[in-house]
Amino acid sequence: MPFPEDPRPTTFSLLIVPGITVAKWSRMWSERLPEVDLEVVPAEAAQAATLLADQVDAGLARLPVDQDTFHAIPLYTEATVVVVPKDHMLAAADEVTVAELADETLLRPLDDVLDWTGGSDAPVTVAADRPATTAAAVEWVAAGVGVLVVPQSLARLYHRRDLTYRVVTDAPTSSVGLVWARDRYTDLVEEMIGIVRGRTANTTRGRAQPPAAPTERSRRTDARRGGSSPRKSAPRRGR
């Protein structure tokens, strides 16, 4: 007689968008669930919603997301920086304000995650041509076409030796969260929630842990109490 198939999944797919690192959480997953492979799925930010809807189990993505379709747990907020050539006048400061970006030419790649054009307090000139990607926009900065405002992790990801970046203290920021489709919640999603929230393996909301083996001391205690049989509740009276 054949054995029934094991219904437990052996893989958990986790989407990540550019700039997000997952090494720490991946290591914790491997330690806690060695029997389930963590499949990291890199994707562009614009593709995240489509993939999260029905193709991956969860993702580390930029917020906000459609709350009718997804659940999200905010994890952290990134500083926003301006990427400039090393010899640019803004590079002389430790940090800058939005007002100091006035009169700069702002590059807005098609995969821009901030969707910011300067606002009334910073009359920047937005370049008419839009680079296809943030990586391409960084190349344009190096060529002297303009400056680029992005989350700090993207400035690090696409770093060039001839460029630098400075924090823009009052610019809009980008938050990152754990996201999953409302109709795709599973025990493994709960495991990932526990990992990113810092729960220990024994936390009650994680996987059920096997009961600890009784010690000699606990046996003696049970014997004094008349055994370890569960106490029966008195029957409830009907109303």
TrEMBL record:
SUPFAM superfamilies: Periplasmic binding protein-like II
Gene Ontology CC, one term: protein-DNA complex
Residue ranges annotated for the LysR substrate-binding domain, each copy included: 23-197
GO terms assigned for molecular function: DNA binding; DNA-binding transcription factor activity
InterPro entries listed in its UniProt record: LysR_subst-bd
Keywords: DNA-binding, Transcription, Transcription regulation
Chain spans, region Disordered: 200-239
Matches recorded under PANTHER family: HCA OPERON TRANSCRIPTIONAL ACTIVATOR HCAR, TRANSCRIPTIONAL DUAL REGULATOR HCAR-RELATED
Protein name: LysR family transcriptional regulator
Pfam families: LysR_substrate (PF03466)
Biased composition (Basic and acidic residues): 216-225
Family under the similarity heading: Belongs to the LysR transcriptional regulatory family.
Domain of life, source organism: Bacteria
Keyword DNA-binding in record: yes
